[in-house]
Amino acid sequence: MDRVYNFSAGPAQLPLSVLEKAQKEFLSFEQSGMSVMELSHRSKLFETILEQTEQLLREVMEIPDNYKVLFVQGGASLQFSMVPLNLLVKGGHAYYVHTGSWSKKALNEAKKVGKTQVLASSEDQDFTYIPTIDVSILDENTKYVHITTNNTIEGTKFTDIPNTGEVPLVADMSSNILSEQIDVSKFGIIYAGAQKNLGIAGLTIVIIREDLIGHAPSDLPTMLNYSTYANNRSLYNTPPTFAIYMTKLVLEWLKEQGGVKQIEQQNREKASLLYNYIDESHMFFSKVKREDRSLMNIPFLTKSDELNEIFIKEAANVGLVTLKGHRSVGGMRASLYNAMPIEGVKALVQFMQEFENKNG
Ligand SMILES: *Cc1c(COP(=O)(O)O)cnc(C)c1O
Known about the structure:
Blueprint: E1 5-6, H1 16-24, H2 44-61, E2 67-72, H3 75-87, E3 93-98, H4 101-111, E4 115-121, E5 142-148, E6 150-151, E7 156-157, E8 169-172, E9 189-193, E10 204-209, H5 226-231, H6 241-256, H7 259-280, E11 297-300, H8 305-317, E12 320-321, E13 332-335, H9 342-359
Parallel strand pairs: 1-12, 3-4, 3-5, 5-8, 8-9
Antiparallel strand pairs: 2-10, 6-7, 9-10, 11-13
The structure holds pyridoxal-5'-phosphate.
């Protein structure tokens, strides 16, 4: 069976060697005679998987000791609610930077919980840039500032992380966690669904500074309270065991690649290949402001919807799949997560060149 280059925004392509390792261990994990899926979450074998996954993440992201790593379900979308439910308490307010569809959803959930304001927005230009942020308006009642570090649908990313001083900065990093080096200590909370750069759907990683845990009202349902996860090493109830195991394999693979520093270099190289071609092409173009371009999700289009459609169809015929842009943006989108090899990007660029020569 031939594998394709899958440019999906998520769930996304995984490294082949990770899938092969999972396949090899599928029926019997470490001579247990059981699949990881059949292991008790209280077993020594699974506890080791959980500990190793956390250790690996701490190592590759250089997470400081005063941060907890939580393994949660419900996707990044549940974090849109959990963040305000745990932090937006006692008459405070929260500021949201509005940079696209996902920040809108985050903001809408927070509105249900407490007082929110938009700190900056790029809606005036269809979210094709990252707005400047004025931190001088933050005050002592600001419970947090929320940003989306990479805008999966619109194809922008924060290059400079805003300095919010004493106010905790909360980041939805679902689509660019582990893609480039970041300084975790700049953030109060980082959260990310695993199905883009960390593994498979079903697991959400929350990295939270310890002093932000324990402020939730006592009537908050147990499973929505960060304390529940922090106090029980994410084993209060059954965690998504297989998804955690897959993340462990992805992190081991990442380490073998040389860690985040090395991956970042590869990601820059991959993204430049595609952006350079788009910039010189007479057929394909990008609407995103140059300085704010994402390394992970690259939307592009031609001037005609019909041509876009033909492109997507013909690309799929040669094994370059899931290139359709999000319905809110149209055109095409190539997601170049860590697991996308440079060969996949080269194949895409070559196909684009051939397509342009034929139809231009
Ligand atoms: C994919 C994505 C989400 C949604 O994640 P779920 O795990 O499906 O809830 C949220 N934010 C960003 C930035 C994303 O890319």
